[in-house]
UniProtKB/TrEMBL annotation:
This is Uncharacterized protein. It comes from the Eukaryota. InterPro entries: Peptidase_S1_PA_chymotrypsin.
Length: 125
């Protein structure tokens, strides 16, 4: 079984090889959204907190990412994979799930938080 992410580049499918933890400001991360497809930005902040749209609580331990000059996500991209490219640009490491955008900044829930708080297991190729 091959676990993939849809891409809009010359490689139409990116193979997920591992889960990764992003631990540095400025790290390059990408997401594959339903609306905006694959777009990339840089980690801007760690351990952030966001309120839910309907006021039903908060989401903690998010990571902010984006570009200073343009949006990298749109409404409809929520719950898409956030990843980092491997050197071969065909395989990727999953780092989290996109939660929402705030103008030019987007937020994702890190993979380690998802795995620690739920009864799910990462399946890779």
């Amino acid at each position: 079984m091959v676990t993939i992410i849809r891409s809009n580049g010359q490689n139409s499918e990116l193979i997920i090889k591992e889960g990764r933890k992003v631990a540095s400001y400025g790290a390059h991360v990408c997401k594959s959204g339903l609306i905006t497809r694959v777009t990339c930005g840089f980690v801007k902040a760690f351990i952030t907190v966001s309120t839910r749209k309907n006021g039903a609580g908060m989401i903690e331990n998010l990571i902010y990412y984006g570009k200073d000059t343009s949006e990298i996500s749109s409404g409809g991209d929520s719950r898409c994979p956030v990843f980092t490219y491997s050197r071969d640009l065909i395989t990727v490491g999953l780092v989290g799930i996109h939660v929402k955008r705030l103008t030019v900044i987007s937020e994702y829930l890190p993979l380690e938080v998802i795995l620690n708080r739920s009864d799910v297991e990462l399946v890779v190729s």
